[in-house]
Amino acid sequence: MGQLVLAAKVTHVPSLMLSEQPGSPLRAAREAAVLSLRELGRRAKQRGVTSFVVFDTHWLSNFGYHINANARHRGSFTSHEAPQMMQDLRYDLPGDTQLAKAIAGDAGLNVIAHQVASLGLEYGTIVPMHYMNPDGFAKVVSVASPLFTSLDESRILGEATRRAIEKSGERVAILASGSLSHRLWPNKRLGPEAWTSIASEFNRQVDLRVLELWQSRRYREFLDMLPDYATKCNGEGGMADSIMLFAALGWYEYGGRAEQLCEYFPSSGSGQVNVEFHVEA
Ligand SMILES: [Fe+2]
Prior knowledge:
Blueprint: E1 3-10, H1 15-18, H2 27-46, E2 51-61, E3 65-68, E4 72-77, E5 89-94, H3 97-107, E6 111-114, H4 123-132, E7 139-146, H5 151-167, E8 171-177, H6 201-215, H7 219-232, H8 240-249, E9 258-260, E10 265-267, E11 270-272, E12 275-277
Parallel strand pairs: 1-8, 2-7, 2-8, 3-6
Antiparallel strand pairs: 1-12, 3-7, 4-5, 9-12, 10-11
Helix pairs in contact: 2-4, 3-5, 5-8, 6-7
The structure holds fe (ii) ion.
The site of fe (ii) ion has 5 residues, from strand 2.
């Protein structure tokens, strides 16, 4: 029997990796987030994680649900939207074809688990794996976020993911890889200060409230506000990552501890954080 042993909401902003360049002015601003991603990787390894399932809000789909089911994820990534930030980034990670296919098969939606060697990973998966799974100790399944879907469908996929995990022989970490609020700075406001400032005070206030709700395990209220939160606070990929994560955790039944691993921080106008949602052993 497989088991979900780690669940977390994580950031994947490119400035994390930019901050590691020698002399980067971003180093201090991103250090806590970088360290907490590494800590999540350490915990995953310690708990014997064999597969990561990453709900990637940076792999956006116009047409239905997709899962990267490649047995090996190998490539050199340059971001099409920000080639100056993410360029020629090499990755070489094992995949989990069986688990990817099981998730797709169990969902009952029109989910396609692809085995196409040239289908690469997006940076919503590459960045967290860079810190959490640098040596490829665990396999990786990347799940896209569809733009034209509903909360109910994403919830079904999250529930299917949990069932597939439990039927597998794997010890699995689920990552919801995406922002909290996600209004970005407009072009004319892009500059060095955009890296470390929020584009909407309204969004920041709602993000902070969400973190409070998580801290006090008021998940029902969070889930009830999630559709409005995703719309009014410019949710990345419709916050499909959070929908799928909470569906996998059990939705209203989940009552575990939320452990915030770094301070909430802004990036290009959006709100970011790393939070582990503890699951029963
Ligand atoms: Fe993103």
